[in-house]
Queue: 3 jobs
Job 1
Amino acid sequence: MKFYYFFKEVDPTELLHYFFGHYLGSNRLRSGSHLFMSFGFIGMRMIKNMFLYFCLLIFSINGLANSIDKESAISEFGVVNEAPQEIVSALIEKLSVDWNSGDMSAYLHAYADVPHFRLAFGDRVIKTKTEMRSFFEKSWATKTDMGVFFTEKINVASISSQLVLATGNFQHQFESETIVGAFSQLWMRRSDGAWQIIQEHTSRQH
């Protein structure tokens, strides 16, 4: 957290030391015994309480700021301050959750609508997000049609600060069959910090 005192960035601990040394330990207060004689015990207690309130205020602000920083770091597609590998791993798990809950819209939301989008599976290559949406919504129109989808053995590696490659195995269970295979995904970080899939390839075990 950044704390400013008279437009100068300072550490909260240093500010406390400054306050204690400059005001509570200053010659002015030590030599100004007439002040305490005038106010007596009440004056001393007021200054002591002011100091305690000052300390409490600084540490309360510091704790609140840390809490806000953590909450504000969470975006729609991931936590900005976490490592890309952790973000993408969590998003891959979210794909299974969205699919198994029958929420096709949320599932497709993880895929980017960009010119270089590619989705390859079997002998087909889908080149646009619109084509993917149309194919998926027609092929798996209901929650029952979507079946149950699991991923495992996930491995995520950073290619750069903007690109992450994820690989793993999947199992897709339907009423009539269970498909087992592997997949690879290329995730790209958008300008707002969110991560989305720009290329995906799946292959099934024969």
Job 2
Amino acid sequence: MKRKQPGWLARTFCQASGKLRRFVINRLRPKYVVEALGKRSGECVRCGACCRLLFKCPFLKFDKAGLAECAIYRRRPINCRIFPLDARDIRERDMVAGAASICGYALNSPAVAATKETAPAEAAD
């Protein structure tokens, strides 16, 4: 059964509460953030959907190939650095990009967790 897309008000509320949720989690539950990021694999495919949650970020730019890039990437806010934390974040992203657009991140992968547990510690630079 195909899931019905939520209306404008529901999407706005969901995206606003998601931004607030990520901010609060980052400030009050840093261990959760570390654990969640440890379960994440893949990389950003530069679609720009996460930069258009609730509103278009003023620092979102697109290169000649149409790929998203951040004008302040090295100084971007913490919410941008930790996105996506969990499946709720991917669902919010899909509201903007559409489910046909695939996020480059995979979450809660047992294979990723096992690989990270058995991988040797990297040497400090």
Job 3
Amino acid sequence: MDPVCKVKFFNENNERCRYLTDEEWERLRAAAPAHEDHSANLLDKMVLARNTGLRRANLFRAQWSWIDWMNRVIRVPRTKNNKSHAVPLNATAYETLKRLFASRDTELDTSYVFCHARDTKHAGKPVLDVKNAFHATLRSAKIVDFTWHDLRHDFASRLVMAGVSLRAVAELLGHKGLRMVMRYAHLSPGYLSDEIHKLDGFRLRPPTATAAPAVVAAVPAAVAPATPAPEPTPAVPEVPTRAKGKKRATSAMDGREPSAVLDFVKEIGSSGWIRTSNPPVNRRTQVIGLAARPAGSSDGTLTLRSIRLKIVQKIVQTGTAAAFAEGA
């Protein structure tokens, strides 16, 4: 057994927020054409990655059928989260895709935007990696600590710095919530700055001042406004109500007497018996022997009529047995 399997490792900090400055981007653009012999259309790939925010796998496997030219939207049918994702195209991304579509090789039977040339080993298949050419371009532009995925961070960072809301950035990146885009929140020009300025000049509310009664008394009677007399409240007719007891209240409208409610016969069952519960077995029932069911059982309910019948049957049987014993 490996003794290290129970060791808890530190959580990796993947909240990277690396973006290019304007000067770094210009240097990267200038150095990219010199390395396109190793990866065709390297500059166009970087431009699309920086202006769409697509992941490398989605961008390199992009097909012409994904592009909605009329609405200027690129729709990815399945992303990393196994859901579809649509990204609007700005002017830079739209013109780049339009130029690539016009210069494509029509004799090559392929549907991919970025594919291998016709005379190569993987002709027509998508280009899945530009690592060597991209790293060579970074060295030529003297840019350090930058990866291809950082172009996606650059896309989100520039959106936030331009004043776009975090919710809109999350939608453009294809994130389900705001947790992944909170790393860019500090780049927003107004992020929490408007809220912190609310403390300037803030004071607790002073206590409410009460009016002095002496000032009111000093006003002459002739100057003081006359208080209007309150209007008489109209009488509300009394509505007969129903009593809360067992007997209905006598109504003055019909003049009928309340009907009598029959009480349960105490000689047969307990005085606490109610309609919704089984009658408990009292002493007389136990003596006579009518406890066919245990008290409180839910398998049946003893009715008044059945109890009377059983009492009569028991008395008859007992009297018959006694008479037979005397005759014998």
